[in-house]
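User: Sequence in, structure out. Go.
Assistant: Echoing your sequence, followed by the structure tokens.
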Amino acid sequence: MRRPVLLLLATIAVAGAAFAPAARADDQWLPHPAHATWTWSWTDSVYSKTPTLEKVTVKSRAGKTFSLAWTTAGLKQADGAQTSTGSVDFQETDLGIVNTNWTSGPPPPVFPILCASAQSCGNSLASAYYNVIWGARNPVLAEPLLKGVAWAGTGGSRNDVTSTTVYLGNEKVKVPAFTSPVVAAKVRSQVTQAGAIGDPYGSGTRTTWWVYGVGPVKVEFDHAGGAGAPVTISQLESTNLKPLPTPTNIDYFPFHKGRTLSYRWTNAKHLKTPEVTKLKIDAVVNNTARFTIVSTKGPIKAKGSYGFSKRVGGVTNLWGNTASASLKPLPPLGGRARFSSPLDLMDYGLNPILTAYPASGQSWATSRASSEFKTYGVTGSTRVLGTQRVTVPAGTFDALAVQSTLSQPGHPFGSGTRTCWFAEGKGLVKLEFRHADGSVSDVVLLR
């Protein structure tokens, strides 16, 4: 948490989200209403050529955890289809969907053994959902699912399977469950297993197509082993769920390690000499980034660092500490804090800065229960206005406009209306803060 400690230490935003937009009851990349059912079919080009049908239902739900169960019983199976029952347990987390457990009978005896020993082997690929979670349990699907997202995962009963996964974008996919092709998020994993008797079968390239509002609808696992190696294909035959519009995958606040940006900040009343600040993203781990700033021109002469994270709850400011050498600081805010960089103007007042999948009309607010109010007495609300074209020295952008109304009693410079414009692949490109004291702070991206 930022804490005001010195007169010239800018300590604006605080850790922890305020009241984010209301979320759906379920994560819509793997929805699990109590009534949901899915029927899958899967084949293996070498070990199980006859399609096996599996009916999946919601076994249990408790808070953010849920269990899906499958069975081959009661379905019109062709001769040679496999017989099995099982379940997979999941948890919705701020990093995405995590698989916490699984259970089933042993795989068919003709399948490769996916352990170092055939005895007490808890690994199997003989089901549709086992192909979904294999080698990538934490998370199965990382969120927010934005352009360029990649992650590493582990799996197997002894975490002896590893994977690297990349989101490839959206494409239309045709599966029997729907009469027409549906838009799906395409995710590809390179899976590696070493030390198992059948480790070539446990390794390979897996592609999964996820439909918003339905879950995974197709999985293709090209197993290692060269020409003639097995290919497992699982696809959705039917479901009582309906696809929902796919949310935006545009990253309006990218974390690219090593990227530098330069901003100019002016305020005709309080900052007559422009302040130029250089920003650098110098560390990124698990979708959390550290931004450093330094003044390159102007009277404030600030330097410091900020932490931001991207999670299911949106883009959140975690911390920010900036020291300034200015002899004529800007008007004070609550708690003896002051603005000293463009990032202070951007993240001041309430979290999140952006929702995970921002769209026009979304809104959220802070209140007396928020950490911002407890630290600075700030209340406010934010609304996504939509995409607008803006021109700044760095270029012309179709940027997402996000407007906040902020109130800090007794501090007009900390109150007013702030509009931020975020561009794909760039982040903040423009900011206008109309303070309640009549002054206006303008921030523009220079390069």
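User: And one key feature?
Assistant: The helical segments are 128-133, 199-202, 342-347, 371-376.
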